[in-house]
Amino acid sequence: MSGSGPTPAVADGSGPVQQPTGAGPAPWDDAVLAAVLMTVDPAGTGGVCLRALPGPVRDQWLSIMRDLQPEGTPMRRVPLHVSDGRLLGGLDLAATLSAGRPVAERGLLVEADGGVIELAMAERIAPGTAARLTMAFDSGEVLLERDGLTMRTPSKFAVVALDEGVGEDEGLLNALLDRLAFHLELSDIRVHEAIACDYDVDDIIAARTRLRDVTIEEAQIETLCGIALALGIPSLRASIFAACVARAHAALEERAEVADEDMAVAGRLVLAPRATQLPPMEPPPDEPPPPEPEQEQDQDQNQSNEQQEPQELDDQILEATKAAIPAGLLAQLQMGKLRRSRSRATGKAGAMQNAPSRGRPAGVLRGEPRHGQRMNVVETLRAAAPWQRLRREERARVGQHSTRIEVRQDDFRITRFKHKSETTTIFMVDASGSSALHRLSEAKGAVELLLADCYVRRDKVALIAFRGKDAEILLPPTRSLVRAKRSLAGLPGGGGTPLAAGLDLGMLMADSIQRRGGTPVLILMTDGRANVARDGTGGRARAGEEATAAARAVRALEITSLMIDTSPRPRQEGRDLAQEMGAVYLPLPHADATSLNQAVRATTR
Amino acid sequence: MPIPFPFSAIVAQEEMKRSLLIAAIDPSIGGVLVFGDRGTGKSTAIRGLAALLPKMQAADCTYHCDPEAGDDAVCADCRETRKHGGKVKSYKVTVPVVDLPLGATEDRVIGALDLERALTKGEKAFEPGLLARAHRGFLYIDEVNLLEDHLVDSLLDVAASGENLVEREGLSVRHPARFVLVGSGNPEEGELRPQLQDRFGLSVEVKTPGDLPTRMKVVRLRDEFERDPNAFVTKWKRKDGKVRRLIEKGREVLPEVVVPDKTLEEAGKLCIRLGTDGLRGELTLIRAARGLAALQGDTEVTVEHLKTIATSALRHRLRRDPLDESGSTSRVERALQEQFGE
């Protein structure tokens, strides 16, 4: 953040890199170039994450990409809720029954060998589906162990993930994103800018034949790795992709060796969109002295005279890469980072849970329809179908003839459901003298409103109060609104502020809820001025330290939390505490009961 | 099958490589869990290891039983032959490394009626599943944290008992299934159930290397491999062979490795200090230290071995302490420092 942000002047100042227009390539040109390079080396680049809402620009890009594919290239579209059978393959029941022997059905991943897979609504793809894709990516083959079949089919494909996410929180899963070389953002491109592409299929085919012989030098790899490091890109795949893209671009431009221009393209298309930090403005001279050479086998002789050159080259490419980082992105990243890594990983409040009988259907499972589980008739019959001949013959052997379909216990299939796990809102109310006396009634009003809301959403609530020397659970998790109201009304005020004790208790409760598969939400109402330590003794300094430590622990557990500052004049310490907790901060003076309610809704949604 | 990237060409990630080699030397260690960042060569290492493992002597039966094993650890066929005084033929085979892909159905994992024979001949026959194929080898689960719950349950059961019991379609089959469970995953995509985590002997955390020379080396080697896999593998053949000999020698030495009382005592102290549940942690710690000693060609387990392997053997067995914000890795390291000083 302190790097003062990339200014447009930097973008124009990338002089040494030759570009036809001189002012840096337009985003659309780069997007098209990405489509071309992906097609030149589908296996090496993995594919494209195309972030854009459906519309003419995206359609134009897709049609260009499709037109670039040589004849006979398979194109497959994977819908959001694709079944395993369709994705990986399985038993083709109709063919199996008519042929009288097992016939396998090929899955989409196998059909797409050598081609392109389009992922529709990729921002909502389930982690499981993404993992199946990445497995095929990593091993270059689709491994099938289903329905009595075992198949290992080599399949290499590129993925075009159509990410229709809006805002920072919504986007392609990191596991998949990491494996795609190009991350394109088409939202800011206007329709008239989306012009046709200069390359055609013949260029692609020619480039593909050249690609194998394109070489990339040691120093160039060093440059790419150095830039990735300077831009704060943790994954090594980024550097590997950058090398691949540089070679693909060289092949496209009919070069046998990777040139500076190819490096610039790689930096711009692969590294820039992944940047998480700005490189230091003036690269300090003592920073990149590579402690070379370790045990290089063949390039020892030209090591010394190259030492100077890569440094210059470094700067050029770095400039070009930097120029491609959109302004404001870094500020966004900085803010969104914590949230992103959390919400994309473990899901939002109310994470999905398996359930026997409620929620959305999520696949079938072998088992008996007991304990209120629902039988899936179609799947049961499917499971029974292949065995009919065997079973009839078995029957015939003991003299029973029947033409009925024979369904046995092993065939039973039940539908599995998933539902959102239950949210428990834990209120931690500071009832001490300092905070409570003037504000407690207001806080109570707010909590009552929130309680009503929790009741509507069938959430559970729990109430913890801390005052005097200790914290206590006034109300264990319950759905009873009446009980919650009653215990809140009876909450006395006064005494010291044992903030750490309150936080500890809340956290223990949240942890046990998490362990039972629920989703806890912490709402802390305090003025943030701790003055009683965990052992009950007074003293502002130690109490404050302990409270900070406890708040950090809450953050480590990644519990969604909200802090409401109840002091008449909010001070920095309240804000600091919220930050340590990773909580949303809300000072009460700005919050009447209704806006408080809205804030909580927004946090717990 | 695509050519795997050579194990010896994997740059850095010493902890992961060491743990996999220890599991290869002593399968009773109970498997390896590899958790960490994307793109750190988790799958690459396991596929690479599979390619270089020394061959094993196996009986001529469906489950490639160990000809040296006792009667209770072989399949029904072998037992039958032995009972009648016959000699089971045996030959050298490569150690199986079986992938358990996501989306696998239960019948393929555990084994079920042979569909082909049922349909074409109307016969009832048992078709062994992945667990049978992995017997005496490795069962590799990528993205283990995304595996379906019911599959995990059956896996746990078999991994604990070393035996797979199939009761379905009127079949009743029991066969040995001892394998080294290797799981990999990314904690960002979902946590692993504590029960499953505990079953793994060693747990490794992998991180992307942060220094330029290492990163460069990774990219350069990868680029070289992609361009010509065959030539690359040939080039690294000798180094892979070295690793193989290391494993072979380690297996030879292993039965002779002794654990002095002093080391046992220190291991016990360390576990008490960390408050690990049950004795599994202590047992694994000792076993792993012994495996490490064998890997390094030593015949006595020293405190140094213990210190090297303690983090891998214990970090996934700590009780979650909500008051301690630091990760379990640093907790083990702290305990080590407290105990042994530095």
TrEMBL record, chain A:
Q: Which InterPro entries match?
A: BchD/ChlD_VWA, ChlI/MoxR_AAA_lid, Mg_chelatase_ATPase-dsu, P-loop_NTPase, VWF_A, vWFA_dom_sf
Output the Gene Ontology terms for molecular function.
ATP binding; magnesium chelatase activity
- Name residues in a coiled coil: none
Start-end of Pro residues biased regions: 280-292
Q: Which reaction does it catalyse?
A: protoporphyrin IX + Mg(2+) + ATP + H2O = Mg-protoporphyrin IX + ADP + phosphate + 3 H(+)
VWFA domain span: 424-603
Q: Please name one Pfam family that this protein belongs to.
A: AAA_lid_2
Q: Which ranges does the record mark as transmembrane?
A: none
Catalytic class of the enzyme: ligase
Keywords recorded for this protein, A-Z: ATP-binding, Bacteriochlorophyll biosynthesis, Chlorophyll biosynthesis, Ligase, Nucleotide-binding, Photosynthesis
- According to the UniProt record, where is the region Disordered? 1-26, 274-312, 336-368
Keyword ATP-binding listed: yes
Concerning CDD domains, the annotation shows: vWA_Magnesium_chelatase
Q: In which pathway does it act?
A: Porphyrin-containing compound metabolism; bacteriochlorophyll biosynthesis
Would you identify the family this protein belongs to, as annotated? Belongs to the Mg-chelatase subunits D/I family.
What does this gene product do? Involved in bacteriochlorophyll biosynthesis; introduces a magnesium ion into protoporphyrin IX to yield Mg-protoporphyrin IX.
Q: What name does the UniProt record give this protein?
A: Mg-protoporphyrin IX chelatase
TrEMBL record, chain B:
GO molecular function terms attached to this record:
ATP binding; magnesium chelatase activity
* Assigned protein family: Belongs to the Mg-chelatase subunits D/I family.
Q: Which residues cross the membrane?
A: none
Recite the UniProt keywords alphabetically: ATP-binding, Bacteriochlorophyll biosynthesis, Chlorophyll biosynthesis, Ligase, Nucleotide-binding, Photosynthesis
Q: Which InterPro entries match?
A: AAA+_ATPase, CHLI-like, ChlI/MoxR_AAA_lid, Mg_chelatase_ATPase-isu, Mg_chelatse_chII-like_cat_dom, P-loop_NTPase
**Where is each AAA+ ATPase domain found?**
28-210
Annotated region Disordered: the residues are 320-342
Signal sequence, renumbered to the chain: none
Report the EC number(s), separated by commas if there are several.
6.6.1.1
Task: Give the reaction(s) catalysed.
Answer: protoporphyrin IX + Mg(2+) + ATP + H2O = Mg-protoporphyrin IX + ADP + phosphate + 3 H(+)
Coding gene? bchI
Top-rank lineage group of the source organism: Bacteria
Q: In which pathway does it act?
A: Porphyrin-containing compound metabolism; bacteriochlorophyll biosynthesis
Name the chain's protein. Answer: Mg-protoporphyrin IX chelatase
UniProt entry tagged with the keyword Nucleotide-binding: yes
Q: What does the function comment of this entry state?
A: Involved in bacteriochlorophyll biosynthesis; introduces a magnesium ion into protoporphyrin IX to yield Mg-protoporphyrin IX.
